[in-house]
TrEMBL record:
Protein family according to the UniProt entry: Belongs to the MgtC/SapB family.
InterPro entries xref list: MgtC-like_C (IPR048640), MgtC/SapB/SrpB/YhiD_fam (IPR003416), MgtC_SapB_SrpB_YhiD_N (IPR049177)
Protein name: Protein MgtC
TM annotation in the entry: 12-30, 42-62, 68-88
Role noted for this protein: Virulence factor required for growth in low Mg(2+) medium and for intramacrophage survival. May be involved in regulating membrane potential by activating Na(+)/K(+)-ATPase.
Start and end residues of each MgtC-like C-terminal domain: 158-232
UniProt entry keywords in alphabetical sequence: Cell inner membrane, Cell membrane, Membrane, Transmembrane, Transmembrane helix
Domain MgtC/SapB/SrpB/YhiD N-terminal, chain residue ranges per copy: 19-139
Primary location: membrane
Membrane topology: Multi-pass membrane protein
Subcellular location: Cell inner membrane; Cell membrane
GO CC annotation: plasma membrane
């Protein structure tokens, strides 16, 4: 049996240290995510860290540092698919980006542990947890600052609620009015809202606007036949 001839207690102990380190550090990162009730919580972050450590440790024992570098590159790209699974679009808001970034960081922690860089893995864990906790008050303080539409970069949407029979004409008129106000349209979506009403949602190319100009466009459109409501809104999460 090949296992009996190749098994070395020192190598096995080294692997245990790598996996245990990844497990403990992944637990620390995941516990904070679990406390926040995020999509990827304790178990997910632990499994990502331990899995990354296992792959890197395996490459280290088989082919040395060169093999570990190749495996790490695959871990970096592969974790992107897992991270994409926790990113969700709800209406015009995108949620889960921070959770996906945390999974990416957990993979980095596991990779460091698998490469026998235990101190570096611990240091990275401290920075990841600090980013998810200590920066929260700063984020909240910045978010409470009133938005200045003329200077802030965001995504702007113009919404037009129209009768179903007025849709073809109003769609063209909306694009025409916005482009006339120097706000070209990047994309248009049509949503059925019920009661024989359809909402036309135009995403603007501009990342900063003059509120008075968009209000003027809304006022002009609201007086057209078939238009029930015209408004615009801003999203800072895209």
């Amino acid at each position: 049996m090949r296992f009996l001839t190749t098994f070395q207690i020192a190598d096995f102990a080294d692997t245990l240290v790598s996996l245990f380190t990844a497990f403990v550090l992944g637990t620390l990162i995941g516990a904070e995510r679990q406390y926040r009730q995020r999509t990827a919580g304790l178990r997910t972050n632990v499994l990502v860290a331990v899995g990354a450590a296992a792959f890197v440790d395996l490459a280290m024992h088989l082919t040395g540092a060169d093999g570990a570098v190749r495996v790490i590159s695959y871990v970096v790209s592969g974790i992107g698919f897992l991270g994409a699974g926790v990113i969700m679009k709800q209406g015009m808001d995108v949620r889960g980006l921070n959770t996906a970034a945390t999974l990416w960081a957990s993979a980095a922690v596991g990779s460091c542990a698998g490469a026998d860089m235990v101190a570096q893995a611990a240091a990275l864990t401290v920075f990841v947890i600090a980013g998810n906790t200590m920066l929260r008050p700063l984020v909240n303080a910045i978010n409470r600052i009133p938005l200045n539409e003329k200077t802030s970069e965001a995504t702007y949407y113009f919404k037009l609620a129209v009768a179903a029979d007025a849709l073809p004409d109003m769609r063209d008129r909306l694009v025409e009015k916005l482009e006339g106000a120097k706000y070209p349209v990047a994309d248009i979506d049509v949503v059925e809202t019920g009661d024989d009403l359809i909402e036309i949602v135009a995403k603007l190319v501009a990342t900063a606007v003059d509120p008075n100009e968009l209000n003027a466009v809304a006022t002009d459109l609201q007086h057209l036949p078939g238009v029930r409501h015209a408004t615009w809104e801003v999203s800072t999460t895209d």
